[in-house]
Design brief:
- One of its GO terms (molecular function) is taurine-2-oxoglutarate transaminase activity.
- InterPro entries: Aminotrans_3 (IPR005814), Aminotrans_3_PPA_site (IPR049704), PyrdxlP-dep_Trfase (IPR015424), PyrdxlP-dep_Trfase_major (IPR015421), PyrdxlP-dep_Trfase_small (IPR015422).
- Belongs to the class-III pyridoxal-phosphate-dependent aminotransferase family.
- The protein is of the alpha/beta class and 452 residues long.
- 39% of the residues lie in helices and 18% in strands.
- The protein has two domains: 175 residues, Aspartate Aminotransferase, domain 1 (Alpha-Beta Complex); 264 residues, Type I PLP-dependent aspartate aminotransferase-like (Major domain) (Aspartate Aminotransferase, domain 2, 3-Layer(aba) Sandwich).
- The protein has 13 helices and 15 strands.
- Helix 3 packs antiparallel against helix 10, helix 4 packs across helix 10 and helix 12 packs antiparallel against helix 13.
- The structure holds 4'-deoxy-4'-aminopyridoxal-5'-phosphate.
Length: 452
């Protein structure tokens, strides 16, 4: 799609930028060092920046516009709901909320049939943890290094990335363990089977030494996203389920990023044939058009609160505008075969092309992914696997690749030494190929940084 961005819009964009720099305090950032891109419009897989230039959005913003930008059915549903009934407090029943809960419950695996709505992902994790603690009467929660679970207190403590460090007050009950990640194995494994077995043994020992009777839950992203899209072995995920059952520990699957079609299934946990006790979601449930998150609750956990009040709630839990956006998003995804499109694009376009690029670019250490959820791990040295930017940091080499992508019209998602190819699930084959062509060219910048 092409669109004319008028001179007035570009003038407004300059004002927007100036006001932003003066008054908007940004997440995770040193405020004086920021240079945010102004976005003045978006449609489908594209965005327009403050200079009127079009870029392919391979980031899906923060990996959430699963049905693309400005999907007309969702925009219309929000408008209709706004005209009809903007808000209903959570203690009342409401048509949009009931229908959203039904559509979500019908798609989550097993008996995850009750939905507690939140405003986003972090508070979904907070409430899943609270439910698991109340159900078990235990307080510790285990999570993996190389994970992200959100920016609020409990969620950031469970997160296994450097953003936890300045937020760790040392009394959260959060315990971290190493998950399976063959490319940078903590266990010196040389095969997927070995990695799975050793990671399970390590988790078993962690549980034993922490004391199973103190552990309420293990929280795992079904496929860790921000941390690098490391697809765990099926045997590992099934082993974790078995371990949880054996020790009375609740399995919380965090599907905030991987859920709602991103991996080519409604939920990433389906790849492993595992049913968790609690499942958290956000992002893709409304494609981020209106903020919404939630926890899908199994019957086992649900029964705990059949005759005992659940001590938790949020003013905007199941907000009608968000619920209407969720209903329209899910219905459009179903009607247009969008989950299937994500699977096919991953299998037929993104996966094969990234693997082919890996043969030509010495800077590509590994490519991993499924659906429209792929990571390209960049290295300075393919033998030692030294990352192109350090864990938790950035580097001029990495910044140069990203600047080149942007100059060529592509906006990818990046974290440390990785570029993530995470376009909307609606992306067409032609758009995917065009974006990958740009990435291919931009990676020549990274190749120049490879030793020898
Ligand atoms: N869990 C996962 C797996 C996530 O990727 C994120 C966000 N990137 C969160 C939780 C937190 O979600 P939110 O930012 O909506 O609070």
């Amino acid at each position: 799609p092409q669109r004319d961005i008028g001179a007035d819009v570009l003038e407004d964009a300059r004002t927007t930028y100036e006001l932003d720099r003066r008054h908007v305090f940004h997440s995770w950032s040193a405020q004086a060092e920021l240079d945010p891109m102004t976005i003045v419009g978006a449609e489908g897989s594209y965005i327009w920046d403050g200079t009127g230039r079009r870029l392919l959005d391979f980031s899906s913003q923060l990996v959430y516009t699963n049905i693309g930008h400005q999907h007309p059915a969702v925009v219309e549903a929000i408008q209709r709901q706004a005209a009809d009934l903007c808000t209903v407090a959570p203690q009342h029943a409401n048509a949009a909320r009931s229908r959203a809960a039904q559509l979500i419950a019908e798609r989550t695996p097993g008996d995850l049939d009750q939905i507690f709505f939140t405003n986003g992902g972090a508070d979904a994790v907070e409430h899943a943890v609270r439910m698991a603690r109340l159900h078990t009467g235990r307080y510790k929660v285990l999570s993996r290094y190389r994970s992200y679970h959100g920016g609020t207190d409990t969620a950031i403590n469970l997160t296994g990335d450097p953003r936890r460090w300045p937020n760790d007050y040392g009394s959260s009950g959060a315990v971290h363990f190493f998950g399976p990640f063959l490319y940078r194995s903590a266990f010196h494994s040389t095969s997927e089977e070995e990695e799975s077995a050793r990671a399970l043994e390590h988790l078993e020992q962690t549980v034993r030494l922490e004391g199973p009777e103190t552990i309420a839950a293990i929280v795992l992203e079904s496929i860790p996203g921000t941390a690098g899209i490391m697809i765990p072995p099926v045997s590992y995920m099934q082993g974790v389920r078995e371990l949880c059952d054996r020790h009375g520990i609740m399995f919380i699957a965090d599907e905030v990023m991987a859920g709602f079609g991103r991996t080519g299934r409604w939920f990433a946990i389906e790849h492993f044939d595992v049913v968790p006790d609690l499942l958290t979601f956000a992002k893709g449930v409304t494609s981020g058009y209106v903020p919404l998150g939630g926890v899908a609750i199994s019957r086992r956990i649900g029964e705990t609160f059949d005759h005992r009040p659940y001590p938790g709630g949020l003013t905007y839990s199941g907000h009608p505008l968000a619920a209407a956006a969720a209903v329209a998003t899910i219905e459009a995804m179903e009607a247009e075969g969008i989950v299937e499109n994500a699977r096919r694009i991953g299998e037929e376009v993104i996966g094969p092309r990234l693997r082919e690029m890996q043969q030509r670019h010495p800077s590509i250490g590994e490519v991993r992914g499924a659906g429209v959820f792929w990571a390209v791990e960049l290295v300075k040295d393919p033998v030692t696997r030294e990352p192109l930017a350090p864990y938790g940091g950035s580097s001029p080499d990495m910044a140069a690749v990203l600047a080149e992508c942007k100059a060529l019209g592509l906006l990818p998602f990046a974290n440390f030494n990785r570029i993530h190819v995470v376009p909307p699930c609606t992306i067409t084959e032609a758009e995917a190929r065009a974006g990958l062509d740009i990435l291919d060219r931009a990676l020549e910048t990274a190749d120049a940084a490879v030793a020898g």
